[in-house]
Amino acid sequence: MQDINEIQLQMHAPCTELIGFVQTIWFATNTSNKQTLSFKILNDCASGFIFNFGDEINLKMKGVNQVSQKEYLLLGPTTDMLTLTFKNEINCIGIRFFPETGHHFLNVEMSQLANKIIFRYKSHFETGSVLYKDIKQLLDKKADKKDVIHIIEAYLLHVLKKSKVKIHHKLNNILKAIQNDQGINISKISHDFKISHRDLQRLFKRYIGVAPNVYIRINKIRNLKTIIANNRFDSLTQLSLDNGYFDQAHFIRDFKGFMQETPKKYYKIKNPN
Predict the structure, then answer these.
(1) Looking at the record's lineage, which domain of life comes first (predicted)?
(2) Listed residue (38, 160, 23, 182) closest to 103, CA to CA
(3) What's the CA gap between 136 and 52, in Å, rounded?
(4) Least enclosed by CB within 10 Å: which of 66, 122, 194, 213?
(5) 182 to each of 40, 208, 214, 220, 268, how far by Cα in Å?
(6) Which domains are seen in the chain, by residue range?
(7) What pLDDT digit, counting tens, does each position of 54-73 carry?
(8) Displacement of CA 124 from its chain's centroid (Å)
(9) Are 55 and 87 in contact (CB under 8 A)?
């Protein structure tokens, strides 16, 4: 894997009106690149868009390779590792929703988009091609990033205003509970929020696109990979026990299932010295 600085990644928080709906608007740029640069990304089950104005990007998810060149695409919710491989000129702009908010902009049951990469997505994002052209015009004029961000925000606010999807406060509270309690399980959620297992499944299927038990597991792994990368643990055995695993073997198997690396190898990658 390559150094993230080689794609000059910049992430920008959206305007106040979108702060609860959009995680980030990001830019990846290296117009003089002549290399092949690969990056692995552990998804958080959020959907988003990539607007590619550069050369080839190879996207690998669920063992399937797809190639993008000078077009826009939708990344549906997934728990799988996404590998982005850039070849030659890099000039991408991305929109990343929260796991529970892509539904507001796409107005479709999110499970229908799960584990999918859809090029020139038009079914529920009809004017995506218009936004792509508008951004390209600004880029051709060497416009400032703030102007590009402004036109993206204006578009998203327009879509949000027309959306018939309402904020689901119970779901938001459930997601906060999952984030704050690494040992939480389906039974505890069902009890604390007075929701049946079946209704919980339906809620996640509609708004997020993945099963709640899988969402809980990936949230735990994302938290653990941060702890490991920052060397904030005494031993892997204790780390596994502190996070609800029966033993270290279960922890290693779960971690490798999502990260494609063992915890020990991931630690060495992030802490080479």
Answers:
(1) Bacteria
(2) 160
(3) 10
(4) 194
(5) 24, 19, 13, 6, 24
(6) 4-162 (2.60.120.10), 169-270 (1.10.10.60)
(7) 999 999 988 889 999 999 99
(8) 19
(9) yes
Confidence check: pLDDT of 186 > 90? yes
Please report which confidence band the pLDDT of residue 4 belongs to, taking 50, 70 and 90 as the band edges.
confident
3-state secondary structure at position 266: helix
In 3-state terms, what secondary structure has residue 25? Answer: strand
Calpha distance 117→64 (Å, rounded)? 10
d(CA 43, CA 23): 13
Identify the pLDDT of residue 124. Answer: 64
- Cβ atoms of 96 and 22 closer than 8 Å: yes
pLDDT of 122 > 80? The answer is no
Residue 269, C-beta contacts closer than 8 angstroms, at least 6 positions apart: 1, 261
Pairing mode of beta strands 10-12, 117-119 = unpaired
Assign 165 a pLDDT band (cuts: 50, 70, 90).
Answer: confident
Distance CA 55, CA 71 (A): 10
Query: Does residue 262 contact residue 236 with C-beta atoms inside 8 Å?
Result: no
